[in-house]
Amino acid sequence: MKRKQKRFLQMTLLFTAALIFLPDIGLWSLYKEKHLVKPADPAEPQTIPLGLGDGQLFIWTDGLKRKDWHDYESIQKDAMRSGKGEHGKPYPLTEEDHDDSAYRENGFNIFVSNNIALERSLPDIRHPNCKHKVYLEKLPNTSIIIPFHNEGWTSLLRTIHSIINRTPDSLIAEIILVDDFSDREHLKEKLEEYMVRFAKVRIVRTKKREGLIRTRLLGASLARGEVLTFLDSHCEVNVNWLPPLLNQIALNHKTIVCPMIDVIDHNHFGYEAQAGDAMRGAFDWEMYYKRIPIPPELQRADPSDPFESPVMAGGLFAVNRKWFWELGGYDPGLEIWGGEQYEISFKIVPKLDHSLTRAVGKKEKRKKRRKEKKRKKKKEKRKEKRREEKRREEKRREEKRREEKRKEKKREKENNSILKTKSHSFTCLLTTFQVWMCGGGMFDVPCSRVGHIYRKYVPYKVPSGTSLARNLKRVAETWMDEFAEYIYQRRPEYRHLSTGDISAQKELRKHLKCKDFKWFMAAVAWDVPKYYPPVEPPPAAWGEIRNVAANLCVDSKHGATGTELRLDICVKDGSERTWSHEQLFTFGWREDIRPGEPLHTRKFCFDAISHSSPVTLYDCHGMKGNQHWSYRKDKTLFHPVSSSCIDCNPAEKKIFMNRCDPLSETQQWIFEHINKTVLEKFNSKASS
Ligand SMILES: *[C@@H]1O[C@H](CO)[C@@H](O)[C@H](O)[C@H]1NC(C)=O
Ligand SMILES: *[C@@H]1O[C@H](CO)[C@@H](O)[C@H](O)[C@H]1NC(C)=O
Ligand SMILES: *[C@@H]1O[C@H](CO)[C@@H](O)[C@H](O)[C@H]1NC(C)=O
Ligand SMILES: [Mn+2]
C-alpha cells in the first residue's frame, strides 16, 4: 500500500510539474539554446504571466517582452476542414481535368484552383521547433503589397483569404493589390466589389503596363505600414508566417527577411516544401539565381533559426519601409518590359465601402439585372455551342494534345526557365548586393512559410532579351566593381550595351557609404566561388565527341531537358544542315558534360538514370551524381554511379548506357581537344 501511495504521489507531482512547465516549453527551449551558445551566462529568464491562458508574456535577458503569436483558433479551424485539396493535398484529377485550356490563360490549372476552397487548410510543415517559438510582443505592422497582372480569379482570392485567415489582424496595416494593367474582366469591378468585405484591402491600378518592379514600387510608395511585405498574387501563406519575419526586422531594422517558399503544384495544387528546403541563395557569373547548401560554419544549433543568405530566395520578402526608401527602393530605371522613359503613373481606386455602394444602389440594381440577363443568354448559347463543339473537339483534342504536350515541354523548359530565372535574378541581385554592401543583412526565416504556384509557363508576353541584359548590366556596373568583368567574359555581348544613366545609383552608393563588392565576396558570399568560381578552371576535354566504330559524332540538336543524344554525321566531315547540329561539348571541372564551348556552355548536362537508359540532356544540378562522368584512358565514357559506359548503335544512331566493354569500339569516344593534366587529375581523384 505504501509503495502504491508513493507512486501515486510521484505521478501526481510529475503531472502537476508537467502542467506548470508545459506552457513554458518555448521559453525552456530558448533558454537551452542560449545556454549552448553562452554557457557562462548567469542571467536566467524570467516569466511574467499576465493573467491566465492566452497572452502569456516572456521577458528574455535583453529585457524585451515576447509572446506566443500562434492563432490557435484559426489553427483548430483549419484542422477541422475536410474536402478536396484540403490540408494541401493534391486534388484528385481525372483525365478531363487536364484540359489544356485550363492552363493556357494562367500557366497553372485554374480548373483545379476553382474547385478547391478559397480558405483551404495547409499542412504545417515547419520545423517542429517553430511551434514553441516566442516573438516580440510589440511587432511593427506591415503593408502587404501584392502586384498582379491578369491573375486568375480564385488564385488571387485564395492569396487574400489565406493572408486574412493566418495573420494576426493587428499586424496588418493594409493589403495593397497593385494591378499592372490587367485586361481580364474579373479583375475590374468584380474584384473591387468582392474586396469590399475586407476593410484593409486597397486596390491600385497602373495606367499602362509597368512591369513587376515599378508595380511593386507603386505599391510601396502608397504603403503606410512600418514594414513592407511583398507577396505574389498566387500564394498561400502558412501557419504563423508573419510574426517571425517582423520579429527579425524589429530586432534590427536594416534587415531584409524572406520566408521559405514552398511549392504549390501548378497542376494538382498539392503543397510541398522545395527540394533541398533550407539553402543559401547564391548566383553564378552570368547572374543566374542559384541555391547552395548552408556551410557548416553557418549552421545553427537550432536549424529553425533565421540564417544569412547572400541572395534573396525569391520575390517574396519583408523590409522596413523607411529603410527601404533610404536604400532608394528599387532602381526605377530598371525596365522589365523594355519600355522607354517611364514615370510612375497611376490611378488610385478609392476604397469602396458599404455606404458608397448603397448610395449607388439603384444604378447597381439595374446593372445587376442587365448582367443577369446577359449571363442567362450567355449560358444558353454556351450550352448549344458546347454540344456542337464537343464532337468536333474531341477528335481535334487528341491530336492536339499529343502535339502540344511535346511543344509545351519544350517551350516551358526553354522559355520559362531561362527567362523567368533571369528576370527573377536581377531583381534579387540588385536588392541583395545593395542590402549587404550598404550595412544591412538578409535572412531566410525557416519558421515563416509561404506557398507559391510556380507556373508551368508565363502566360503573357515575356520581356525581350535586350532589356534584361540592360538591367543586368545596370546592376553589374553599379554594384559589382571589378567583378563585373567576370560577367562580361561569359557574356561578351553585354560589354558594349548601353545601361542608360546610372549616376544617381552610383551617387546613392557613395552617399550611403556602401562597402565594395570585394568586401561582399569576402564577408558574405565567401562560399559562392566554391560552387561558381569567377574564373572557370580549365576543362579536361572539349569539342566534338566522335565514336570510333561509327565515325559519327554525338549531337544534341540544341535540345533542352529530356532530349536524347544521338549520333550524326560530324559537322567537320561536311554534314549539310549545320544549323540544326550541336556537336561541341565541354567536359568541365565539375566533371559533367555540357553542350557548348568551354566559356559558353549551356546549362544542360549529359544525364543517365540507369545502366541501360538512353543518355539525355537534363538541367545541370552540379552535384555530380548521375551527371558525373569519367573519360578513361581506354576512351570509354564511364558513368561511376551506374558503373556502366556510353555505348551506341551506329545503324540506328542511338546512344545509350551499357555494360562496359573496353574492347567494343562502339564504346570508344574521341574528344577533339584534351587537357592531359586536368584529365589525369580527375582520374587520379576517382581512383584514390
Ligand atoms: C502601424 O504602426 C504605427 C506605429 O505604431 C501606427 O502609427 C499606425 O497607426 C499603425 N497603422 C495601422 C494601420 O495600424
Ligand atoms: C517563347 O515562347 C513563345 C511561344 O509561347 C515563342 O513564340 C517564343 O519564340 C519563345 N521564346 C524563346 C526565347 O524561346
Ligand atoms: C591545361 O590545364 C592546366 C591546369 O591544370 C593549365 O595550366 C593549362 O593552360 C591547360 N592547357 C590548355 C591547353 O588549356
Ligand atoms: Mn509567381
Automatic annotation (TrEMBL):
Its cofactor is Mn(2+). GO terms for molecular function: carbohydrate binding; metal ion binding; polypeptide N-acetylgalactosaminyltransferase activity. GO terms for cellular component: Golgi membrane. Residues 358-416 are annotated as: Disordered. Keywords: Disulfide bond, Glycoprotein, Glycosyltransferase, Golgi apparatus, Lectin, Manganese, Membrane, Metal-binding, Signal-anchor, Transferase, Transmembrane, Transmembrane helix. Residues 386-415 have a biased composition (Basic and acidic residues). It is found in: Golgi apparatus membrane. Its main location: Golgi. Residues 363-385 have a biased composition (Basic residues). Pathway: Protein modification; protein glycosylation. Residues 539-672 form the Ricin B lectin domain. Its EC number is 2.4.1.-. The keyword S-adenosyl-L-methionine does not apply. GO terms for biological process: protein O-linked glycosylation. It holds the Pfam family Ricin_B_lectin. It is a single-pass type II membrane protein. The chain crosses the membrane at residues 12-31. InterPro entries: GalNAc-T, Glyco_trans_2-like, Nucleotide-diphossugar_trans, Ricin_B-like_lectins, Ricin_B_lectin. It catalyses: L-threonyl-[protein] + UDP-N-acetyl-alpha-D-galactosamine = a 3-O-[N-acetyl-alpha-D-galactosaminyl]-L-threonyl-[protein] + UDP + H(+); L-seryl-[protein] + UDP-N-acetyl-alpha-D-galactosamine = a 3-O-[N-acetyl-alpha-D-galactosaminyl]-L-seryl-[protein] + UDP + H(+). Belongs to the glycosyltransferase 2 family. GalNAc-T subfamily. PANTHER family: N-ACETYLGALACTOSAMINYLTRANSFERASE, POLYPEPTIDE N-ACETYLGALACTOSAMINYLTRANSFERASE-LIKE 6. This is Polypeptide N-acetylgalactosaminyltransferase.
